[in-house]
UniProtKB/TrEMBL annotation:
Protein name: Glutamyl-Q tRNA(Asp) synthetase
SUPFAM superfamilies: Nucleotidylyl transferase
Organism: Pseudoduganella lutea
Pfam families found in the cross-reference section: tRNA-synt_1c
Gene name in the database record: gluQ
Binding site for L-glutamate: R7, F8, A9, P10, S11, E43, Y183, R201
TM annotation in the entry: none
Signal peptide range: none
Length: 300
């Protein structure tokens, strides 16, 4: 079997909720089924949104759930040199952009008025250079224009997925106007540096994958395999998240309550039929249940 290295990469913007537990559980089980390593990476680049102590709370919650990671935990804020090196490597594909989000939104509204069925993408305003009076804000990566670039991949849960990144995305940001590195660049650099072979995460990131595959291609790093699990939604149909008021799943409850109110519901959401009286029993049953689910879905 090929060496397997997976990861769970939470942002320390608050404690883990049921949705993030589902993603953690899926990635952990997939690593166990494949006899691989499971790494934890704290994605703390967005310092304006970080909550003090949230990273340690996340790690403590994983421990209480019985999910032990391999090796040392890494923090993105300690890896700035890697992103700088990647930017230097991408220099010929990058340009400064002076557009604000409002200006981009306004241009998209105008485009829709002229072409009601037009795809809303960055219109390329600064592609040929900053307009007079504009100062550089973000850095964008050029996407191929002629011919347009369609990127496809085989997702282990959803099957074949493809996206025309020229028409559906346009030139995308790799360093934000606030100076922070964009998720798309950081995640590609981190996964390559850590030798990640398999990425298991929520389906809300499915749309980001073609951009990441394109960046991997430009940087000359391997393409991992991907599996995007369904995301948990709230009563209004919105993705469960800290922004939509998702409550922490681990509030210091005793192990028996953590099992019945968090681990078992997360497993059921993933389609796993697991019965257990203790947390160790849960994992002993959940690993083969995940293997069985993969066989059923033909996603090994």
């Amino acid at each position: 079997m090929t060496s397997y290295i997976g990861r769970f990469a939470p942002s320390p913007t608050g404690p883990l909720h049921l949705g993030s537990l589902v993603a953690a559980m899926a990635s952990y089980l997939d690593a166990k089924v494949h006899g691989g390593q499971w790494l934890v990476r704290i994605e703390d680049l967005d310092r304006d949104r970080n909550v003090a102590g949230a990273d340690e709370h996340i790690l403590a919650s994983l421990r209480r759930c019985g999910m032990a990671w391999d090796g040392e935990v890494t923090w993105q804020t300690r890896r700035q040199h890697l992103y700088e090196a990647a930017l230097a490597q991408l220099a010929e594909h990058v340009y400064p952009c002076g557009c604000s989000r409002r200006e981009i939104a306004d241009s998209q509204v105008n485009l829709q008025a002229l072409q009601p069925n037009a795809t809303l993408v960055y219109p390329g305003t600064c592609r040929a250079g900053l307009a007079p009076g504009k100062a550089a804000r973000a850095l964008r990566l050029r996407t191929p224009q002629q011919p347009r670039r369609v990127i496809g991949f085989q997702d282990r849960w959803h099957g074949h997925v493809e996206q025309d990144i020229t028409a559906e995305v346009g030139d995308f940001v790799i360093r934000r106007a606030d100076g922070f590195w964009a998720y798309q660049l950081a995640v590609v650099v981190d996964d390559a540096a850590q030798g990640i072979t398999d990425i298991v995460r929520g389906a809300d990131l499915l749309d980001s994958t073609p951009r990441q595959l394109y960046l991997q291609e430009l940087l000359g790093v391997p393409h991992p395999r991907y599996l995007h699990v369904p995301v948990v939604a709230n009563a209004d149909g919105e993705k469960l998240s800290k922004q939509t008021g998702a409550a922490a799943f681990d509030n210091g409850a005793p192990p028996a309550q953590l099992l019945t109110q968090s681990l078992l519901p997360a497993a059921r959401f993933l389609g796993l039929h697991v019965e257990a009286a203790t947390i160790p029993d849960f994992w002993a049953a959940a690993v083969p249940a995940w293997a069985s689910l993969l066989r059923t879905r033909h996603t090994q």
